[in-house]
Amino acid sequence: MKKQWWQEKIAYQIYPKSFYDTNGDGIGDLRGIIQKLDYLKELGIDILWLSPIYESPLADQGYDISDYYNIDARFGTMQDLEELIAEAKKRDMYIIMDLVVNHCSDEHIWFQKAMQDLDGEYAKYFYIEEGKGDKPPCNWRSYFGGSVWEKIPGTNKYYLHLFHRKQPDLNWENPKVREEIYQMVNWWLEKGIAGFRIDAIINIKKPLPFKDYPADREDGLSSMHYMLAEAQGVGDFLAELRDRTFKPHQAFTVGEVFDIKPDEIGDFIGEDGYFSSMFDFGQTIIGSSELGSYAAKQPTPEQYKASTFESQHRVKEMGFLSNIIENHDEPRGVSHYIPQGDCGEQSKKMLAAVYFLKKGIPFIYQGQEIGMENVPFPSIEDIDDIATLEEYQVAIRAGLEPQEALQRVLPYSRDNARTPMQWTAGANAGFTNGKPWLMVNPTHADVNVEQELNNPDSVYNFYKQLIALRKNSQYQDTLVYGELEPVLQEAENILAYARKGEKNTILVLANFQNEPQKITLPEGYRIKEVLLTNEEGEETGIEIFLNGYEVIIAECAKNV
Ligand code: TEU
Ligand code: CA
Questions:
Q1: Is 256 a catalytic residue?
Q2: Do 542 and 514 contact (CB within 8 A), yes or no?
Q3: Ligand 1 centroid to residue 181 C-alpha, Å
Q4: Which of 18, 49, 63 to mutate to test ligand 1, by most ligand atoms within 8 A of the CB atom?
C-alpha cells in the first residue's frame, strides 16, 4: 500500500462538552481545547478528532446538527475554531471534525421548510412517506427505540429517522442533497481541517421501497440489521463523496462503519478506498444482545483475543483499521474488557499495550490515557444519554425491577465515557468552576492528570512511552507497517503477537489474567531486549514468566 501522511500518526478523540470548561458554564468549550493543546502535544498526539461542535439543539449531544456552517455558542465561536486550527498547525497537529450526514436536526432550516410544504423541494431532502392504513410505512426499529417513523401532525404522512425523532434522515438518493453535502465538506476542508470522522455512514443507503422485516422483539419491530443486510449500492454514494471532496484534499477520513459486508473491506479502506481508515468495532460488539443492553454480556479475555486476531486477519495488508478500546458511545474500555475486580494500574497498561500496538491507527479517547473508569451513577436520574434512558425502559418492559434494570444497563451506558475529564483531584476534577453538566466520576481523587503527570509509573506515562515507541525511528517501520502474526494463540488468557518488519520483529506478550503464567515462545522467537513493560523483570530468551496482567514489549533476536 502506498505510504500516506497519516499512517504514522496517533489520534485522540475529544468530546468537547466534557473536555475543559473555560467560562464556568459547566460545558467544555473550544477555548478549553486550545488551552490543553500543549498537554496533548506533550503526550505525543498528532490528530485530534472533535465530536460535533456545530450548531445543534443537543438532543443527541451535537449528532443532531441544525447548521453545518456554524459553531454552537455553547462551544464557542468560529473565531475560536479558527484559532484552534491555527494553534494546532503551529504544533504540527491536525484537526478532524465529525461528519454527520446520515441525518440532520429537525431544527435545521431544510427540515423546517420541508414541514411547511410537504410537496415542495425541501420535502425531497428527507424521506416522507404515506402511512399504510393507520400504520407507519414499515416496521423498522430506531437505534434509539420505537418506530423509525414519526407522524406529521394533521396528515397520514411520516418522516424517517433511524436515530432519534429529532434526527430526520437526509435523502441521499436526491442529487441536490448530495451536492449540498459535498459543498459543505469542501468548505470545511478549505478552512484547514485535515479530514473527518464519518458518523453512522453505512445507514445512508436504504433498500427501497420501504418494507417490513421479521419482527425480533415483542414490539413487533425489526432491528436495523435486516435492512442493512439488504441495502445495495452504498459504495456509489461513498465513491462520489470521496472523489468530490476527500480525495482532492488528501483528507484523512475514518469511517464509523458497522454491518459491512465481508468482501467490501478493500472498497472501504483499500488503496483507493472510500475512506483512509475505519474503526475496528469487532471487540465492542462482543456480547451484545438483540434484546437490549440489559441482556448483554461482558467479553471474556479469550473472546477479546479471538476478535482481535479475526479483525487483523480480515484486513491484513489491505489497509489500516483504526484501533480503539472506547469512544463516546461505549463504556470505558478498562471497565469493560478487564474482568470484574481486576481493573487496576497493571491491567490498564496491559490493555493499553495490546490494543495500541496492533496494526492500524491508534485512537485514544479523552481520559483513556489516565485510565478513567466507568461511573457509579447512583440513579437513572443521573443519566443524560437518550440511548441509555431508552435501554433502561427496554429492561423495565422486559419485566426487570427498577434497581435491577439500572444495574444491568449501567455497565453499557454511553454516559460512562461522557463524564468530565479528570484534570485534578480538586473540585469538579478541575474541569469547571461551575456546575458540570454531567456528574464527575468520584474516582478523580486517584485518577487524574495532575497526579499522573508527576508519577513516572502512571498509566499516563505508560501511554506516553507507547506513543514514543511507535514513533521511535528504530521501530516505527515495524510498528506501523509490519504485518501482525498471532503467537501462542492456543494458550488460555495469553494475548500475544509479533509485528514483523524489515529491520526487526517486535513481540507483544500479555497475560490477560490475575494468575501468573509461564510460557515458552514458539520456534523462531527469542527475546533479545525488553523495550517496555509494566513490570520490573528484564526477561530474555524463550522461557518467559509473566505476572498477573504483565505485558512485555520486546525486540526479538535475529536468526533463532
Ligand atoms: O453512532 C452510530 C450508531 O450506530 C450508534 O447507534 C451506536 O451503534 C451506538 O451508539 C452504540 O452504543 C453515531 C454516533 O457515534 C452516536 O454518538 C450518535 O448518537 C449516532 O451516530 C447518531 O448520530
Ligand atoms: Ca464552557
A1: yes
A2: no
A3: 20
A4: 63
210-249: pLDDT as tens digits: 999 999 999 999 999 999 999 999 999 999 999 999 999 9
DSSP state of 525: -
pTM: 0.98
At 503-517, the pLDDT tens digits run: 999 999 999 999 999
As given in the structure block, the three cell numbers for residue 233 are 449500492
Q: What are phi and psi of 505, to 5 degrees?
A: -120, 130
| Cell triple for 96 | 478532524
Pocket test for ligand 1, best of 143, 281, 390 (most atoms within 8 A of CB): 143
Residue with C-alpha cell 533476536? Answer: 557
For the Cβ of 387 lying below 6 angstroms from any atom of ligand 1, the answer is yes
Q: Is 529 a catalytic residue?
A: no
Are residues 534 and 335 in contact, defined by beta-carbon separation less than 8 angstroms? no
**With contact defined as beta carbons under 8 Å apart, do 196 and 242 qualify?**
no
CA distance 197 to 13: 10
Identify the structural domains of the chain with CATH numbers, from first to last: 11-102+175-378+417-462 (3.20.20.80), 109-160 (3.90.400.10), 482-556 (2.60.40.1180)
State the alpha helices, DSSP H only, in 192-300: 224-230, 234-241, 247-249, 265-269
Name the nearest CA neighbour of 527 among 509, 547, 548, 549.
Answer: 509
Question: Relative to the CA of 414, which ligand 1 atom is closest?
Answer: 12
* Opening angle at CA 67, ends 65 and 70, nearest 5: 115
Question: CA 98, CA 112: separation in Å to the nearest integer?
Answer: 23
Assess whether the C-beta atom of 95 lies below 6 angstroms from ligand 1. Answer: no
**Minimum-distance ligand to the CA of 259?**
1
User: In the chain, what is the straight-line distance between the N-terminal and C-terminal CA atoms, in Å?
Assistant: 30
* CA-proximal residue: ligand 1, atom 14 (nearest): 199
Q: What average pLDDT does this structure show over 280-307?
A: 97
Mean pLDDT of 35-50: 98
Backbone angles phi, psi at 525, to 5 degrees: -120, 130
Residue 402 neighbours by CB distance under 10 Å: 12
Give the span between the Cα atoms of 57 and 66, in whole angstroms.
7
Closest CA to 525 of 542, 538, 513: 542
Ligand 1 touching residue 128 (CB < 6 A): no
Share of the chain above pLDDT 70, in %: 100
Our answer on whether the CB atom of 100 is closer than 6 Å to any ligand 1 atom is yes
Largest CA-CA distance found in the chain, in angstroms, rounded: 78
Question: Which of 29, 46, 150, 199 is flagged as catalytic?
Answer: 199
Based on the number of CB atoms within 10 Å of its own CB, is 132 exposed (0-12), middle (13-18) or buried (19 or more)? middle
C-beta separation of 43 from 464 below 8 A? yes
Catalytic one among 80, 169, 256, 384? 256
Q: Ligand nearest 98 Cα, by number?
A: 1
